[in-house]
Amino acid sequence: MIIPTFNEAELLRNSLESVKSAVDQIVAVDSSSTDETLNILRDFSAKILTIPFNGSFADLRNAAIEACDYDWIFVLDADETIDKETGRVIRNLIEWKDVDAFCLNRKNYVNGWLCQYPDYHFRLFRDYCRYVGKVHEYISGYTYKPIYLNLHIVHIKTSERQAKQTARYNMMRKG
After folding, report:
1. What is the C-alpha separation between 172 and 163, in angstroms, rounded?
2. Is 107 exposed, middle or buried (0-12, 13-18, 19+ CB in 10 A)?
3. What SS3 class is residue 144?
4. pLDDT digits (tens, 9 = 90+) for 26-61
């Protein structure tokens, strides 16, 4: 699994707890966190890459992919979790032949309200796929038609966190 981090201590432990039985490795690419993020990652025996943010989330994610030791990559953000069913199914999906990318359905909650659903994202793919784009990056390099699954990632935000991230993304687009 790969996970980008930057000062994510508030939510990170829940994210990693939800996925720990579904993955064999956690690779975090951290952009110089100053909170407890790195200690939490160490608690989960994550391989940690420290890479300063250069404005491209694709660059961070691709560096994490390069550091993975397995053929399949699962992606989760620090403010996301998976349920037990999704975790069990992920282990079976990597046995499929002639498939190199799966899209999972993300349930987006802001202040407890489901606000965007369905919201499919490439979250399980072979290690030869790579991210393209700076912000709201996407996967490229898959050969077969991706499979869309009704397995859920739960994405929880507050309006305050959403506003901060939107402001950060807008600054990056200008810069």
Report:
1. 14
2. middle
3. coil
4. 999 999 999 999 999 999 999 999 999 988 999 999
Nearest-angstrom CA–CA distance, 161 and 94? 34
Q: pLDDT tens, 68-125?
A: 999 999 999 999 999 999 999 999 999 999 999 999 999 999 999 999 899 999 999 9
Report d(CA 171, CA 25) in Å as an integer.
33
Whole-angstrom distance, CA of residue 25 vs CA of residue 62: 16
The kind and range of the H/E element at 89 are helix 84-93
Kindly tell me if the per-residue pLDDT of 175 is higher than 60.
no
Distance CA 75, CA 122 (A): 8
Q: Which helix (H) or strand (E) holds 50?
A: strand 47-50
Length of the chain: 175
Residue with tokens 């290690």: 127
Domains of the chain: 2-174 (3.90.550.10)
